[in-house]
Amino acid sequence: MMIRRRTRSSIALAATALAASLALTACGGSSSAQDANGKLKVVASFYPMEYLAQQIGKDHVAVTDLTAAGVEPHDLELTAKQVGTVQKADAILYLKGLQPTVDQAVAQSGSKHKIDAAAASPLVDHHLDEGAEDGGADGHRHEGPAGDPHIWLDPTRYAAVARSVGEEFAKADPAHAEDFRRNTDDLVGRLTALDEQFRTGLKDAGTRTFVTSHAAFGYLAEHYGLTQVAINGVDPESEPTPARLAEVQKAAKDNGVTTIFFETLVSPKLADTVAKDLGLRTAVLDPLEGVKDPAKDDYLTVMKQNLANLQAALGATSAAS
Fold this sequence. Notes:
This protein is α/β, with parallel strands linked by helices. 45% of the residues lie in helices and 13% in strands. It is built from eleven helices and ten strands. The strands form three sheets. It has a four-stranded parallel β-sheet with strand order 2-1-3-4, sandwiched between helices. Strand 3 (91-94), helix 4 and strand 4 form a beta-alpha-beta unit. The protein starts with 7 loop residues before the first helix and ends in a 7-residue tail after the last helix.
């Protein structure tokens, strides 16, 4: 299931902000197709969308990320100013269902170039189910309009979204279409190389089961033949039941797990507790919903660190190509 943690009051506030911004936008008239510097005005809902926009658009785009660095994207509440920015955007990159207030603003936007990542790479429901054994996600897998949003953690799915972004940017700004296509090809090439690094680096893992605090890695696990055992579901702030904790402990013991993974934007307390109970170590497996220091890290550097951490935890000895 997609994450729904908004209170009625927060949604009402967002709706009020949206209505106010729409009124201001209507009074101000239509916006120009490009900003004052001649760049395409692009809004990205959170970091994985911002990264695609920057890598594909480069100097031809002015990108606004609605989710600030270090902020958990599920918690985003748009201000009236941000809603106004969405209304004036030439192109919008988002993942429908992940951030309800963004969905509301996008639905009301007059932009002709709305790019939903979930349309380019359909979502799968990687939900927890007691006793289930299904592929790489520790739960049932079925297609549907709602599902696990973390498609960017599978480089091949992320590449499909990149292709969609490149095509839409070319439509929005035909004068730079060739540049957008060339940049897209370059990015897809780097994602293809990353995919091969994961395949090579994990092929001889001693165990193919890993335990993580947040069920964000279903696509990654499925793609590389691993099994994700998650303490929590897709919602990183949910609380596991005692029965779920017992299942996780049993799976860790039965599969020779050495490490409990936690993530950077959520408290590691739960992972620490489970690791201490089992006498295991902890390490970071970053779901890349955001980066704390964009000047230091980006999608590729964090994914390569994820690979190194998985190799260490799973006992893989092959060097990533």
